[in-house]
Design brief:
This protein has seven helices and two strands. By secondary structure, the chain is mainly alpha-helical. It has a two-stranded antiparallel ribbon with strand order 1-2. It is elongated and about 110 Å long.
């Protein structure tokens, strides 16, 4: 009885609604927990997105390196006792490079084609995870690789503009397309590697 009277007297003298204060403190505590949970969720999402980008980048590069290993995209050519860089080979003896890449494509297409299909699927998936730029880079690389298919038939009739003023048969034009696409492969691979490097450098599995 005395305890209850004392609480009533204290509340009256201080003018404080202790029940309201308790409710406010509960609400503040709930809000703080909600903010902490939201921040934790945001951090998890950021880490999850980073891991997805890292994993996707690794898969794309793994497929490209496998294709590179099956074809002659990193040529081993010696001048005297010195190995020539791919850039030197491309600049000085491009026909040898094209010939060797095409020869390997004909010999190993059974292994290359499934890798190209996998790379195409990864490139489509990369659009949502890594953005349009990398997806476009992969698409351009795929276009050049697909041209190397031994079963590709030159059924396309080139326009006068495409022939550059020359008179070419469909077969001659197809040969030109293959040559130019093959010579672009190192440049296209380098562009994909450069585009993926931020995702590989900013996250560690």
């Amino acid at each position: 009885m005395f305890h209850e009277s004392f609480e009533a007297l204290l509340a009256a003298s201080c003018g404080v609604d202790w029940s309201a204060t308790a409710n406010w403190m509960t609400a503040a505590g709930t809000l703080a927990l909600a903010v902490a949970a939201w921040r934790a969720l945001g951090k998890w999402r950021e880490e999850h997105a980073g891991k997805m980008a890292y994993d996707t980048s690794r898969r794309i590069l793994s497929l490209i390196y496998q294709i590179q290993g099956l074809l002659w995209i990193e040529p081993v050519v010696y001048r005297g006792g010195q190995r020539m860089t791919p850039e030197e080979v491309l600049a000085e003896i491009p026909e040898l490079y094209v010939t060797e890449v095409r020869k390997q494509a004909h010999a190993k297409w059974g292994k290359v084609e499934p890798l190209i299909d996998d790379l195409r699927a990864e490139g489509l998936g990369a659009k949502a995870i890594l953005g349009n730029e990398i997806s476009e880079r992969v698409r351009l690389l795929l276009s050049s690789l697909t041209v190397l298919s031994p079963v590709r038939t030159p059924g396309y009739k080139p326009t006068a503009e495409e022939m550059g003023g020359e008179v070419l048969t469909a077969e001659q034009f197809a040969e030109r397309v293959v040559r130019e696409a093959t010579l672009r492969l190192p440049e296209l691979i380098a562009a994909v590697e450069e585009e993926l490097s931020p995702y590989l450098g900013s996250h560690r599995a």
